[in-house]
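Weekly structure sync, notes
Attendees: PL (lead), two postdocs, one rotation student
Agenda item 3: pending single-chain targets
PL asked that the sequence for the first pending target be pasted directly into the notes so everyone works from the same version. It is reproduced below exactly as submitted, 327 residues in total.
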Amino acid sequence: MLDRSRIRQGQQPAQALRDTVLLAQQVERLGYHRFWVAEHHGVPGVAGSAPTVLAAAVAAATTRIRVGTGGVMLPNHQPMVVAEQFGVLASLFPGRIDMGLGRSVAFTDGIRRALGRDKDAADHFAEQLAELLGYFDPERGARGDVHARPAEGLRVPAFVLATGAGAGIAAEAGLPLVIGGLRGAEAMVGAIERYRAGFRPSAQAEAPYVVVSGNVAVAETAGAARDLLVSEAWSGAYARTHGEFPPLAPVSQVLAREMSPRERAAYQQALRGHIAGTPDQVVAELGALLARTGADEFLVTTHAYDQAALLDSYRLLAQAAGLPVPI
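Predicted structure, written out during the meeting:
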């Protein structure tokens, strides 16, 4: 599962980060395989700006679940620094760290300037990725190259997030692919087919490996499951119509709001393209998605104002999917 450390209305960012760590502990007990955190800069409603730092806190607070990033936005960073960060993580928590990598850059000119990047930084993702992976090469020392210690010689599984040309780059590099697109499933299936067709085996992966991601909400009734999507949908709709991504608001407050026609259209659009329903309904939809995509894993994410209902959603999904509960 993926958590973005969403801030709830009236909450400080510090609490959102603590909630992320607590959620990781809770879903570990439910049997989930991975817990990933994301990278966002300058977003009022998101506290997760430093994924490798947050991943360290999550890994320290858990014992079994794999911990990673979904992802580190490589164009925002120097590859050597990223290699060093993951080298430290993998050294401290051996066998538990995943390196999810994306090619997005910051959304605004101001933040890009603050990061020392421009709009074209994503165009160099393939070269940055190759450089980053090179720092883990155990033969690097024998060639006298620059070292990124303690990364050199470590094996940290790398995943590429499919934004833009990401699927093709993942295939060329021989890396697992993480792809979302439940709203545009046909395009997603096409990208997966092209990824598999163009895949080149590598030291990281001998065969294509696909992780399909999306919002999944589960409750005892379909209506309650849909309510889990309301706060995030409104936050996204507000961002598209006002240019600011706000904290998550209570469902009752969103439903009572008098939206403008433009806000209403954006809100309704934001509610579409997710998987939400009772446990049986959600498992059936995930089964159909598995049949269409041949996915090796599902990466699920849900961001709800009601934290108890959110945890219950993950619990119901784990039970319905038959996840083995760790001893």
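Discussion points:
- Residues 125 and 294 are 27 Å apart (CA to CA).
- The chain has one domain: 2-221+274-321.
Action: rotation student to compare against the earlier draft before next sync.
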